[in-house]
């Protein structure tokens, strides 16, 4: 038989494909430059990157869910060019790649492959099955999720846990694979869809999971000691847990991170204050979260806060490039999985601009309040006004239902508002302590703030944490002047409330956490609440508390009712009870309601 001829268009292509980088036009300390992918290539392959890692010389190694591995050089250049070369193909739905001494290992549905370029021509001649010492079914959701290398040459893998057709031995497990690939042991099990992060120095293994059945909201776990993490597939006996459930480092609310993916350690980076820290990648609403770890209470705890939302594609995994010390993230779109971005795939360089980092570097709930630490000095006047901070707590319920509502301490749906009674700024002006009544261990605590830096720049944000244990606040040890934290009700403290204004409403929307659920952009469809821009004066179809439907004009009366009694008229399409908006009755004053209404009116 005559060999198949090479199609004429392919024969003219060079061995490499050149693309360019497009610098971000966003402001902020961290922006995301878009790196062109080799979509036009001689093999006519889709380039849906699911992961990128780096060799010591800065060469990027990217893997696609379509089964290819690409090498990319020049990624560290501001605008490129980036030279791409296809290194390997024929893998079965690989989702991640790992490097050990610059050798390339890829995890797909058949196992872990070592790809060898024996003649150093830039292409793999050998696909060696390095490890298959673990089970794999043909079930659609048993993804080969994550592969990462540990400090002693061992590997860690995460496998999807949803079992639609087949009971599997290792579905929903995180496993440790021996350095020689010949054996594997379970590090943790009972995950729905785990995605990993591994600290290559300490060996700490973390995993997020996907909210769903038995997973009430998004957790971030430490994985160790063969523990059970709470998920039961529909093939397992309903509600029969095989072991005690390990609690997460922290929960993350649906509005913040409905679809968590992997974690990245920023070791030896040039990313400013966040060097050495961990970042959580969010898929559903593309975002990077700064993970703030602390062991002040004798156990590891965590809080998360937004680092950047400057992403126009859905990220999955990433790594720091040693050539420039910046973080690179890659991902592709999964249509119908809770994300409406129309970008097929992307690769982004998360670049530190040198501007002030406004996200806090520490958030620690304590017995008398919450400690916030910043990388920039805080304006004393705004930092000592307790009205510039808000606290809310709630819990979830783990059931066979999909996700969970938010529950107050008395068991009713909603959140408990905790009054902020006082606020103090440290001597170096980089810490704030917010006094609060009623703090204690709880599944979810939100801390919101809207203050200013010493230079007058806004320091606005929200952090989310799970305080498993609280420590006492020691003012002098933390750098504050000697003092006693006032926990007297704020009504007893004389203060002047700002006059009602749209600007004050904007500030309140931030400090109260409204912006976590409601988008100000027309094209952002990933929030769990209705968009705000153009809301005032529009016609709204609603579902009432009695399930009756109707139509109303969004005037001042409607907006006021939506703030104080949000279940009275839910916007049609947003009536799912588990994501209900909490009532702000009693949490805001009449003047503050007026400010919020004025702000909403201004969003034309």
Structural summary, described in words:
By secondary structure, the chain is mainly β. The chain folds into three domains: 12-352, Neuraminidase (6 Propeller), CATH 2.120.10; 362-495, Immunoglobulin-like (Sandwich); 515-602, Cytochrome c-like domain (Cytochrome Bc1 Complex, Chain D, domain 2, Orthogonal Bundle). Helix content is 7%, strand content 34%. It contains five helices and 38 strands. The protein has an eight-stranded antiparallel sheet with strand order 21-22-23-24-35-34-30-31, covered by helices on one side. It has a five-stranded antiparallel sheet with strand order 1-7-6-5-4, with no helix packed on it. A five-stranded antiparallel sheet has the order 2-3-27-26-25, with no helix packed on it. The longest helix has 13 residues, at 590-602. The chain is globular and about 75 Å long. The model is unreliable at 1-13 (pLDDT under 50).
How is the topology of this model organized?
Elements: H1 8-11, E1 17-19, E2 21-22, E3 30-35, E4 49-54, E5 60-64, E6 69-73, E7 82-88, E8 96-100, E9 103-108, E10 111-116, E11 126-131, E12 144-149, E13 155-159, E14 173-177, E15 184-189, E16 195-198, E17 205-208, E18 218-222, E19 227-228, E20 250-252, E21 260-265, E22 278-282, E23 287-294, E24 301-308, E25 317-320, E26 327-332, E27 345-352, E28 362-366, E29 369-373, H2 380-383, E30 389-394, E31 416-418, E32 420-425, E33 431-436, E34 444-452, E35 458-465, H3 502-511, E36 539-544, E37 549-553, H4 556-564, E38 569-571, H5 590-602
Parallel strand pairs: 15-19
Antiparallel strand pairs: 1-7, 2-3, 3-27, 4-5, 5-6, 6-7, 8-9, 9-10, 10-11, 12-13, 13-14, 14-15, 16-17, 17-18, 18-20, 21-22, 22-23, 23-24, 24-35, 25-26, 26-27, 28-29, 29-33, 30-31, 30-34, 32-33, 34-35, 36-37, 36-38
Helix pairs in contact: 3-5, 4-5
